[in-house]
Design goal:
- Helices cover about 70% and strands about 0% of the residues.
- By secondary structure, it is an all-alpha fold.
- The protein folds into two domains: about 10-55; about 80-305, MetI-like fold (Orthogonal Bundle), CATH 1.10.3720.10.
- α11 (about 255-265) packs antiparallel against α12.
- The protein is globular and about 70 Å long.
């Protein structure tokens, strides 16, 4: 019986060729998926730019930025985008003022105080909150939170920014908590041990060592949550109302940017009309606002990110 030498590479060549072909096919498939994602993003941006350009051919950008009223669907149309921007910023501010303490304290509890068994139970329960449909949150704000707040604040109207902002904050709390917990858990244990060796208590270690070390990750989670709040639709549409007014009064109905897009997209707006193109102008403003937040997030993370060996 003949024995084939182990170092006979003639038998390895077909296997190497097959592996190379498989790797090439996998690279092509992955590259195709990436190309589809990039092409989709480019298509969305191109659509926004084209329709917004057509909008500004009929509406002065000066009026768009300086008018104090937003009535694009009325006969005497006015296009003051800051009416919608002020409502969106106010709602997002209320939301993050609720989500930041709740989310950050939850993250600290899960990372620093909870046992592994308790963490394995609490974290999935917290993240279930992120799976609740936003329309459910909207009706929760309208039918439960608003009547409760009206019992405390009698001048609060039925549709208002306060209850919408509070429930919006609750809806983004899991995002802040989960990402912040990941950032805090990534801080090396050696930093904590060094603080304990110097006589610091657990509270002092968390405040003076752990949180500053995880700052970039925490800020990234907050900015991501703000971006999520800015783009939220159903909660603000159902609970905040659809009354465009300039100001920062949380006790009255307001109209956010996403709420206007919903209102103008119900099917009554003729395609190609000025009112139709207003949807894209608002969408482009929303895109620019979130883009600025993301750019700031990237800069902050690069500027303050800690690297550990």
């Amino acid at each position: 019986m003949s024995v084939i030498p182990v170092n006979d590479t003639s038998l390895w060549k077909p296997a190497r060729i097959l592996n190379r072909r498989i790797e090439l096919a996998v690279k092509l498939i992955f590259g195709l998926f990436a190309l589809v994602s990039v092409a989709t993003t480019i298509g969305i941006i191109a659509t926004l730019i084209f329709e917004t350009f057509e909008f500004f051919r009929e509406v002065s950008i000066i009026n768009f930025l300086t008018d104090s009223k937003w009535t694009p669907l009325f006969s005497s149309a006015q296009f003051g985008i800051f009416v919608l921007v002020s409502a969106t910023v106010m709602l997002s501010g209320i939301a993050i003022s609720v989500a930041l303490p709740l989310g950050l304290l939850s993250a600290i509890c899960l990372s620093e105080y909870a046992s592994p068994k308790v963490r394995s139970i609490l974290k999935p329960l917290l993240e279930i909150l992120a799976g609740i449909p936003s329309v459910v949150f909207g009706y929760f704000a309208l039918l439960l939170v608003t009547p409760f707040l009206q019992s405390i604040i009698p001048e609060l109207e039925g549709f208002n920014a306060l209850s919408a902002g509070v429930v919006l904050g609750i809806s983004i709390t899991p995002l802040v908590a989960s990402l912040s917990e990941d950032a805090i858990s990534a801080v090396p244990q050696s930093l904590r041990d060094g603080a304990y060796a110097l006589g610091a208590t657990k509270r002092e270690t968390i405040i003076s060592v752990v949180l500053p070390a995880a700052l970039s990750g925490i800020v990234s989670s907050v900015i991501l949550a703000v971006s999520r709040a800015i783009g939220e639709t159903m909660i603000v549409t159902l609970a905040a109302g659809q009354n465009p007014r300039l100001g920062l009064n949380p006790f009255v109905p307001v109209m956010a940017m996403t709420a206007f897009i919903v209102q103008a997209s119900l099917g009554d707006t003729p395609a190609g009309s000025l009112a139709y193109r207003t949807i894209y102008a608002v969408g482009m403003s929303l895109f620019v606002l979130t883009l600025i937040l993301n750019i700031f997030s990237f800069w902050f993370v690069r500027r303050f990110r800690e690297k550990y060996e």
